[in-house]
Specification:
This is 6-phospho-beta-glucosidase. Pfam families: Glyco_hydro_1 (PF00232). By secondary structure, the chain is α/β, with parallel strands linked by helices. It has one domain: Alpha-Beta Barrel (TIM Barrel), CATH 3.20.20.80. Helix 6 (149-165) runs parallel beside helix 8 and helix 12 (343-357) runs parallel beside helix 13 (383-402). The two termini are 15 Å apart. It has 14 helices and 14 strands.
Length: 468
């Protein structure tokens, strides 16, 4: 007989959603905010960035106007029962150009209001320092993360927000999906898309040192806080049981696990040092870099999970995907945007990461992008989203029963937002519909979808209402 305790998530499990400043706030040029790298990608990260003097307006300039409408949106999150909200601070609201000696007070005051609103509603702010954006001036003036100078600029930014919000924010992340730099270097490290591997990995080294400095600063300034890293959980299976395919999967997984290994274990792994040797990549390191990294292990490991992939030793098997290429899995269905739907892959990934790192895990992004169309009554019956999330949460619970220490779950895009990859509104993730469209039209009115009430019930019952 199954007991209630066996069907529910742990008592202190955090439930919520995840958003990013550059995809919801809008107000891209208000209150002293500078231009970010995201602001220079009007059609999303799949498009080349535009020089400052050629910048054209884009849908992200207004996004869903969370900048002004946050009280209404946070109230809706509270109605669903959220106990935390993952959000990001726009670096350019605090240091508009990135290299100023003093922060922009208007930007700091804005996030004071956001965090106060969350606390008022009983929600923990869960803050990412840099979510697919950085001051654009740092790419123009210094060459992005290719310059060591960015380490200190980022540390100054981190210190500023830690000191300002130390009494309000106890959960932090450094860089969103830090391994994405390998696939979208302008978005990840502010380098041109045609940058070489040598240039990208050098920039990544600077970012990893900056990550270590931020972790140490957080521990010093907010001793009762926890700070984690964030990976794009791109789990690859071998396409066949041929040993060459198993090795291919191992190599593909090592590309992203490298980031987690450095941030948790505090050193460059042997497989990466071999890769550098064989590729002729030489990372320039300053005295103390490795000691800095070694002394700053993160408190927990967080990750996004949308799909799994396959890897094959046969290059002809590879298929172009959304940002990341992989071999299609014949046993899985695809979403409208071609992403493989693999709930059991989440359980596999959770067990894999927990076995590897022995640190608490946090699923900070998971959701389904789909074209939501109101029916004849104006309602949105998004049963496909319910089915997707239900399946993934059931498998997350299975991982908890396997012994995985799981801190929480924040679904990606609890409210419709601008898609990061393509800058579309039509790729909707939310439990809350926003009346805005790809051409910029719409009233911005908010409306609860069917999934809103479903997620509300899941949270209320600690997962007991999930269909198993």
């Amino acid at each position: 007989m199954t007991t209630h305790a066996e069907t529910t998530f742990p008592k202190h499990f955090l439930w919520g959603g995840a958003i990013a400043a550059n995809q919801v706030e809008g107000a891209y040029d208000l209150d002293g905010k500078g231009l970010s790298t995201s602001d220079m990608l009007p059609k999303g990260i799949l498009s080349p960035h535009q020089p400052r003097n050629e910048r054209t307006p884009g849908i992200k300039d207004l996004a869903i106007d969370f900048y002004h409408r946050y009280p209404e949106d946070i109230a809706l999150f509270k109605e669903m029962g959220f106990t935390c909200l993952r959000l990001s601070i726009a670096w350019t609201r605090i240091f508009p150009n990135g290299d100023e000696s003093e922060p922009n007070e208007a930007g700091l005051a804005y996030y004071d209001k956001i965090f106060d609103e969350l606390v008022k509603h009983g929600m923990q702010p869960f803050v990412t320092l840099s979510h697919y954006e950085m001051p654009f001036t740092l790419t123009e003036k210094y060459g992005g993360w290719g310059s060591r100078k960015l380490i200190d600029f980022f540390a100054r930014y981190a210190r500023t927000v830690f000191e300002r919000y130390k009494d309000k924010v106890k959960l932090w992340l450094t860089f969103n999906e830090i391994n994405m730099s390998l696939h979208a270097p302008f978005t990840g490290v502010g380098l041109p898309e045609e940058a070489s591997e040598q240039e990208i990995y050098q920039a990544i080294h600077h970012q990893l040192v900056a990550n270590a400095k931020a972790v140490k600063l957080c521990h010093e300034i907010i001793p009762d806080a926890r700070i984690g890293n964030m990976l794009l959980g791109a789990m690859n299976y071998p396409y066949t049981c041929h040993p060459d395919d198993v090795l291919a999967a191992m190599h593909e997984n090592n590309k992203w696990l490298f980031f987690g290994d450095v941030q948790t274990r505090g050193k460059y792994p042997g497989y990466m040092l071999r890769y550098f040797r064989e590729k002729g990549i030489e990372i320039a390191m300053a005295a103390g870099d490795l000691e800095e990294i070694a002394g700053a292990s993160v408190d927990f490991v967080s990750f996004s999970y949308y799909a799994s992939g396959c890897a094959s030793a046969d290059p002809k098997q590879k298929e172009v995907g959304n940002i990341i290429d992989s071999v299609p899995n014949p046993y899985l269905e695809k979403s409208q945007w071609g992403w493989l739907i693999d709930p059991k892959g989440l359980r596999i990934l959770l067990n894999f990461l927990y076995d590897r790192y022995q640190k608490p895990l946090f699923i900070v992004e998971n959701g389904l992008g789909a074209r939501d169309e109101p029916d004849e009554n104006g309602e949105i019956q998004d049963d496909y989203r319910i089915a997707y999330l239900n399946g993934h949460l059931v498998q997350a619970h299975e991982a908890v029963k396997d012994g995985v220490e799981l801190m929480g779950f924040t679904s990606w895009g609890p409210i419709d937002l601008v898609a990061n990859s393509t800058a579309e509104m039509s790729k909707r993730y939310g439990f809350i519909y926003v009346d805005r469209h790809d051409d910029g039209s719409g009233t911005l009115a908010r409306k609860r979808k069917k999934s809103f009430y479903w997620y509300q019930d899941v949270i209320r019952t600690q997962g007991a209402s999930l269909t198993r």
